[in-house]
Amino acid sequence: MVAVRRSRPLRNQLFTRITVVWFLCILFILLAFSTTCLLVVDKIKALSVTKTIAGDNLEPTPWHPFPAKIFPSDGKYTRASQIFQCSYLTCSSPLRFIRSYMNKNELLHNTTHSCPALFQWIHEDLAQWRVSGITENNIKAAKEFAAFRVVIVDGRLYVDPYYACVQSRMMFTIWGLLQLLERYPGLVPDVDIMFDCMDKPKIERAKYRQSKFSPPPLFRYCSNRDHLDIPFPDWSFWGWSETNLAPWEEEFNNIKEGSKAVKWIDRKPTAYWKGNPDVSSPIRTKLLECNSSSMWGAEILRQNWFEEANAGYEQSKLANQCRNRYKIYTEGFAWSVSFKYILSCDSPVLVVTPKYYDFFTRGLMPRENYLPVRSTKLCTSIKFAVDWGNSHPAEAEAIGKGGQKFMEDLNMDNVYEYMFHLISEYSKLQKFTPQVPATAQEVCKESVLCLAEPKERFVLESSIPKTLTYPQPCSLDPPNQKLFKKWTDKKTKVINDIEKMEDISQTKKKEVTEIQSIQNKKSIDIEKMEDISQTKKKEATAPSKVLDRNQRTQNKKSEDAHQGEKKKDMIQTKKTEDSLEGKNLGGGDMPQGKKRKKRSRTKKTKDTPSYRKLEDKPQGKKG
Fold first, then answer.
1. Do the strands 106-108 and 469-471 form a parallel or antiparallel pair, or are they unpaired?
2. What's the CATH architecture for 244-357+361-409?
3. Where are the chain's structural domains?
4. What is the DSSP secondary structure assignment for residue 341, as one 8-state letter?
5. In whole numbers, what is the pLDDT of the chain averaged over residues?
6. Which residues of 529-566 are buried (b: 16+ CB within 10 A; e: fewer)?
């Protein structure tokens, strides 16, 4: 009994302790859960403002405003979870490293070759920093003009977005850099790059011509002679999902195949342009005035991208736009990505005097790859080029083939090689060791595809090469100033010669027009003289006609008066005869057989009425 009594308090104590432990565990779990929930909520709030290359939580560039991107309305928590997965989990996944190791590219070391001549422009674009180098202060100064920052360290890519880019430009540009890293593993050096994805260059050359400070290095898709922005291959080489354009090599092959549908000589003998003139481009607005096949030899069509998007871009397929002998290229708001597609037809391209250039257009040569057209005399210059080409068909067709061949040689191998050498030469100028910024995030192919919309993902995946073996990058020659001078002198001479030909042609046309004008004036003067002569003749004959009419009137009056006198004489004669006849009938003294004395001036004949009356009456007897 004593043992039983003692066991009960022990049991109660044990139960109490277990209860306390369970209570503490439950309390700890509740606290942990609430803390986790709070952390998750905070993380979701943080993710809701996380900036991505897809444009999440980014404002448009202030120097070129545009409508912000609208994402699918699946709820902010759904989008936040997607951002968390794509931005923080995808690139660090063990599966990614396994997959990247299995798909590792191999370089063929025995295929080194010289780079194309146009790669010499890399040296020219970086010449401004050849002496001073590129410092961290230069990078910080470039941030003012950049939309995003790209840092490559140990073959891994990090992005720090500042502003949104139009449509998917940032995503496709980053995708191209990731493809570059995969193509040349271990060869791409560490770099720190500021990049702007909008059109117009910003770093003014004149501002740093006499300055002791070196200009901020800024990459973009185009530049011009007045700016120092560094040209880089544009996003559309990997496709342009918003306009239904495939990656470059696929799109080029489609255009080339489409150009075979109609032989060059059988195409319309006119110049063709189709695009959007409503982009604050005075030259495109002016181009609309040249829309006349008969007067200017040009067909100018307005492109409505909203209608084309709704119609599935069926009317704007580039492969179906090689039906004219000539095509026209003119810049828009700045440089235009359409240049490479227009050149891909084997029709000579009439290039309206450009102000901007991208990385490859400086390698084009007039009258070999295109025909220059003056912007100052746009319509007449287009007309001259069309007339010249139609009168020199063999030369014109060769120029069209030359432009197409240039673009065919610019394959994706050359594009990646240009990117590699530009980044490599840029890295040699850096006077600091690139470090990953605290605000930057690692980006990999998987994270880009994770953030991309279905159509974007399809285009991006279609740009992935089918092979895993690539040749080594081409060998870049050192700077050659003589080559630059040779190019520029040749290009200037050819353009001047064409302009002189055009001026001579216009002068001859003007002379012919003046001669025709003089001849027309002479013919008009002759006609006027003839009209004056005829008028004078009419005026001269008019008085004679009046005199004749008066004479006829007077003659008629005199005839009427003469007839009146005749009638009076006849009446008088009749009266006289009647009186004489009355006397004879009354027993006159005139003997028979003796003729009557004629007192009337009118000669009596048997035909006269009075004679017939006398003859018909019986002769009266005397007494």
1. parallel
2. 3-Layer(aba) Sandwich (3.40)
3. 76-234+413-479, 244-357+361-409, 481-532
4. H
5. 83
6. eeeeeeeeeeeeeeeeeeeeeeeeeeeeeeeeeeeeee
**pLDDT tens, residue by residue, 235-257:** 999 999 999 999 999 999 999 99
The token pair at 438 is: 């605290």
Q: Three-class SS of residue 227?
A: strand
| Cross-strand partners of 324 | 268
**Three-class SS of residue 9?**
helix
Rounded-to-integer distance, Cα 148 and Cα 166, Å = 13
Nearest to 60 by CA among 46, 50, 70, 72: 70
- Residue found under tokens 């994770």: 450
Q: Give yes or no for residue 544 having a pLDDT over 60.
A: no
101: left (phi over 0), alpha (psi -120 to 50) or beta: alpha
Q: What is the token pair recorded at 393? A: 């068909």
pLDDT digits (tens, 9 = 90+) for 81-128: 788 788 778 887 665 555 555 555 555 555 578 999 999 999 999 999
**Residue 33 forms beta bridges with which residues?**
none
What's the angle, vertex CA 608, arms to CA 606 and CA 612, rounded to 5?
60
Q: Cα–Cα distances in Å, from 548 out to 391, 540, 552, 557, 563?
A: 68, 14, 6, 14, 22
Hey, CA dihedral for 391, 397, 399, 400, is it positive or negative? Answer: positive
Rounded CA separation 349/272 (Å): 9
CA dist., res. 407 & res. 414, Å (int):
11
> What are 220's strand-pairing partners?
231
Contact present, 340 and 261 (Cβ < 8 Å): no
Question: Which has more pLDDT, 394 or 466?
Answer: 394
Which residues have C-beta within 8 Å of that of residue 537, sequence separation ≥ 6? none
Chain segment 362-420, per-residue pLDDT in tens: 999 999 999 999 999 999 999 999 999 999 999 999 999 999 999 999 999 999 999 99
pLDDT at 537 over 80: no
Question: CA nearest 125: which of 484, 485, 422, 474?
Answer: 422
Length of the chain equals 623
* Residue 66 or 579, more confident: 66
Angle between helix 169-183 and 412-429 (nearest 10): 90
User: What string of H, E and C letters represents the secondary structure of 443-507?
Assistant: ECHHHHHHHCCHHHHHHHHHCCCCCCEEECCCECCCCCHHHHHHHHHHHHHHHHHHHHHHHHHHH
3-state secondary structure of 250: helix
93 SS3 class: coil
Among 509, 422, 495, smallest CA distance to 120 is for 422
| 312-331 pLDDT, tens digit each | 777 778 999 999 999 999 99
Measured from the Cβ of residue 421, the count of other Cβ atoms closer than 10 Å reads: 18
The Cα 496–Cα 501 span in angstroms is 9
Question: Mean pLDDT over residues 52-69, rounded?
Answer: 86
The full 3-state SS of 357-376, as one line of letters, equals ECCCHHHCCECCCEEEECCC
Of 391, 385, 348, give the one whose Cα is nearest residue 369: 348
Read off the tokens for 395: 């030369």
